[in-house]
Amino acid sequence: MKCAGRPLIVAIAGGSASGKTSFAGYLQTALAAHDTAIITEDSYYLPAALRPAGDVTTYNFDRPETKDFALLIEHLTSARRGHGFDCPRYDFASHDRIAETVPVAATGVLIVEGLHNLGFDELRAIADITVFVDAGYDVRRTRRIARDVAERGRTLEDTARQFDAVVEPMHVAHVEPQRAVAQRVIVNVGDKAVLKQAADALAAEIEAALASPRDSAH
Length: 218
Fold this sequence. Notes:
It is a single chain. This protein has helices at 20-30, 69-80, 121-126, 137-151, 156-175, 192-211, and strands spanning 8-14, 36-40, 85-91, 96-104, 109-114, 129-135, 184-188. With 218 residues, the chain is of the alpha/beta class. The protein has one domain (8-209): Rossmann fold, CATH 3.40.50. The strands form 2 sheets. It has a 5-stranded parallel β-sheet. Strand 3 (85-91) and strand 4 (96-104) form a beta hairpin. Helix 1 (20-30) packs across helix 6 (192-211) and helix 4 packs across helix 5. The longest helix has 20 residues, at 156-175. It starts with 7 loop residues before the first strand and ends in a 7-residue tail after the last helix.
């Protein structure tokens, strides 16, 4: 699992509001004894200047091509070599990347979570551990609506309509297929305790790998 001379990278994918962010947080907490950082794929949305002109309210942000995966892979490659990088910041209110970045220092364990990251062969090759958080339609829809209304300034009606018209079709087309290529699948039935238990179990495996003097091939 651990490759000699570089940090351990965990890539977590899953549907919108599937619980992947919560899982990543629980994993980081369980690995508190280690130098651990989380980055989110959402930070790598393309800036507005690189999007086609048009109404942002009807733009489909749930496609993989809306994100700068070349930059994400570049940053993960840098992390793999033991270097830090400057993670971009994306503002969901303005639908644009902002000038300030977030410095991510070299770390022992780096967790990256998002919708589409396991869909890229090069990114999966960089990761030591790949995880897919699998949640059903009802769980994801309820959580997505609540989040977008509370955190992203959207209306309940618009969020519900967007989920059914855009988010779910994109989930079926681009997110669900990643389940088959993940090394581990975590089923989220809407119980945070289950996610925490799964994160604790994975953290125990990581702890054992970090403590072992033997490094498995990657």
